[in-house]
Design a protein that fits this description.
globular; 417 residues; single chain; Alkaline Phosphatase, subunit A; two-stranded antiparallel sheet
């Protein structure tokens, strides 16, 4: 039984969830975003909290350092951290002391991405993708990681860490999913088609979207949009076996004008996850690999011309975050446990770089800031995930009040470039 491309598209439509027309809201701008999600909870003390007082446990070889206007924790085992801030600190912003009110991974992930750990609401990624100006084939090219779409479910296209989208579009996936049998009768051919449909359905079910069954974009795979995507398969080519591979897919899509947003997870392949409760050195290895990849991405985007002048880095904000932090003290396994305060790193365009917003107490909790200036202010506001989200939406020319309740957070106006 031989399947044509059109037959493949018909079979796999629900699985791919390509974007349909995105609502009636007025689109915003073309400013781009890359989200790098560090799944499992990173340890701010290893990079973002060079605070050696109080109860914060540090490696004896850690030292406080500064480069590009950013204060950070330096260590000879993490040379890529220093290299990154030396090269890109002037274009970077660190937000310290964001409180995520839970220590459960799933709850914290929803909090840090939506500003609300309980309600069904859009994550910042989906909003920015859904409010892109123009008609993009892949508004959010989503390689791997969590997603919480509500109003804009079809703005995100899961390309898969192992070329699933590319292979489904080309027909390779279904062609390789079974061995053709010569001389099939009509009944056997029909049975084999049912088998193929079931296999595609199982592939779709592996997506970790909580509302995957409700994504209504199936008709688009039979439209000209799927045909147009075929011309850009090279942008999606290759397995995302590590963070560099995943970032290359995202950068390709941004540079070719296919996407406004890209989402990757730094826990891909051999890079592992960040939920290390034993041996704090594992976190150090993660940070070294992460910052090496971030430096490569910054250099690539800075060398690529942007639309209308400048570089791609000028027109892109990269957001690096984790759903929680790690405790200030080590445990009996010489690791650190879950902690409700964390940091986020932003670099690229539209931000005031070379600065840190927020500070750490001696117990690794956050300090209040003045939202207008971004300066530490004991009479100011304690940072919550909603402040991060509102700031990102403002960077993307989306009115934060549409998506973030006033009590949940407001933009940090002092960091908007």
């Amino acid at each position: 039984m031989s399947l044509s491309r059109r037959a493949v598209l018909g079979l796999s439509a629900a699985a791919l969830c390509l974007p349909r027309r995105l609502g009636a809201e007025t689109p915003t701008s073309d400013h781009k975003f890359v989200f790098v999600y560090c799944a499992g909870g990173w340890d701010p003390a290893l990079v973002f909290a060079p605070n050696f007082a109080g109860t914060i446990a540090h490696d004896p070889s850690d030292v406080a350092a500064s480069a590009g206007g950013i204060d950070f924790t330096d260590n000879a085992t993490r040379p890529s951290v220093r290299s990154f801030f030396e090269s890109w600190g002037g274009r970077s912003l660190v937000l310290n002391g964001i409180e995520v009110p839970s220590v459960a991974h799933d709850v914290c992930t929803r909090w840090i991405m939506t500003g609300d750990g309980r309600a069904a609401t859009d994550d910042w990624v989906s909003v920015l993708a859904g409010r892109a100006s123009g008609s993009l084939l892949l508004p959010n090219v989503h390689v791997a990681g969590p997603l919480f779409p509500w109003r804009y479910p079809s703005a995100s296209v899961r390309v898969g860490a192992h070329r699933q989208l590319e292979e489904l579009l080309s027909g390779e996936a279904l062609a390789a999913s079974t061995s053709p049998v010569v001389g099939l009768g009509a009944e056997a051919a029909a049975a084999q088609e049912v088998l193929l449909r079931r296999r595609v359905a199982r592939w779709a079910a592996r997506a970790d979207l909580p509302d995957a069954a409700g994504l209504g974009a199936a008709e688009l795979l039979a439209s000209d949009r799927a045909t147009a995507l075929e011309a850009h398969l090279s942008a999606l080519a290759g397995d995302a076996d590590d963070l560099d591979d995943a970032l290359a897919i995202v950068a390709n899509c941004l540079e070719q004008g296919l996407s406004r947003v890209g989402f990757v997870s730094s826990g891909l392949g051999g890079n592992g996850g960040w939920d290390a409760h034993a041996n704090v050195q594992l976190q150090g290895m993660q940070f070294e690999a992460l910052f090496a990849s971030l430096g490569g991405l910054a250099a690539r985007l800075d060398a690529a011309p942007g639309a209308g002048g400048g570089t791609m880095l000028d027109q892109t904000t990269i957001v690096v975050f984790s759903e929680m932090g790690r405790s200030p003290n080590t445990n009996a396994q010489l690791g650190k446990d879950h902690w409700t305060w964390t940091s986020a790193l932003l670099f690229g365009g539209r931000i005031v770089g070379g600065r840190t917003v927020g500070a750490w107490t001696d117990g690794l909790t956050g300090t209040p800031i003045d939202l207008a200036s971004g300066e530490v202010d004991e009479a100011g506001t304690s940072l919550l995930p909603g402040h991060l989200g509102a700031t990102l939406l403002a960077l993307g020319d989306v009115d934060p009040e549409e998506f973030v309740d006033a009590e949940a957070g407001a933009p940090i106006r002092g960091v908007l470039g």
